[in-house]
Amino acid sequence: MSLRAEGLTCVLGGRTVLTGVDLAVEPGEVLGVVGPNGSGKSTLLRALAGIRGPAAGRVLLDGTPLTALRARQRARRIAFVGQEEDLPPDLCAGEVVALGLVPHRPPWAGGDVVERTAVTAALAVVELDGLADRPVDRLSGGERRRVLLARGLAQDAGVLVLDEPTNHLDVRHALGLLELVRSLRRTVVVSLHDLDLADRWCDRLVVLHDGRALPAVSDVDPDTVSRVFGVAAARVTHPVTGRSRLVFDSLRESS
């Protein structure tokens, strides 16, 4: 599925956060969204997922405006995993994951073999095998993040929108999650706090700066990083993998 934003303006709390955003995500592409804190990453992702309507402009899913889709129709096509979600502590991990199946099932359906199989499979993908019956309040922050991702995977939508999915994850699980995202062969929009991870794992990156979205690029220029984030940035070759990596330092120390 393709996802496109045309002239998107987003307002939050009476303040215009983003203006005139144009972007396109091709089928099967992983598009990263980066920017300083407060630049509007979460607001943009919610607009792209249809969670929050834009003040102006429109979002198109395979050429169809999101506003033309009912909520259940949209949920069958776009799965959104937010940055911070308050989960009811009395729910078990498997019950949270099962919520991803709701858009595909008749009212009051659930609890059958098909649901249990789907929940088990989704938890296994995020390395939480055997935790379906564990209450949410007994999970670590990283485990809760992976449960939410499993819910998004169980939703089986063609587009996956992930807001800071590596929050609370250690290095191994963060890398594993991004490897998983790339292997899904779905259309993915993901915001990431770690610029180097975003640069490495996303096909293209959109940088948010001063209320606008810079044109998407496959490799972020270090000068752009320095201008937007106020740090000294450079590209180096990893001595083991041979891959190009972004490294950073404070401008004060580099001068």
TrEMBL record:
Entry-linked SMART domains: AAA
Listed InterPro entries: AAA+_ATPase (IPR003593), ABC_transporter-like_ATP-bd (IPR003439), ABC_transporter-like_CS (IPR017871), P-loop_NTPase (IPR027417)
One Pfam family of this chain: ABC_tran
Protein name, UniProt field: Iron complex transport system ATP-binding protein
GO molecular function: ATP binding; ATP hydrolysis activity
Residue span(s) of domain ABC transporter: 3-235
Keywords per UniProt: ATP-binding, Nucleotide-binding
Lineage, opening ranks: Bacteria, Bacillati, Actinomycetota, Actinomycetes, Pseudonocardiales
Gene3D superfamilies, sorted: P-loop containing nucleotide triphosphate hydrolases
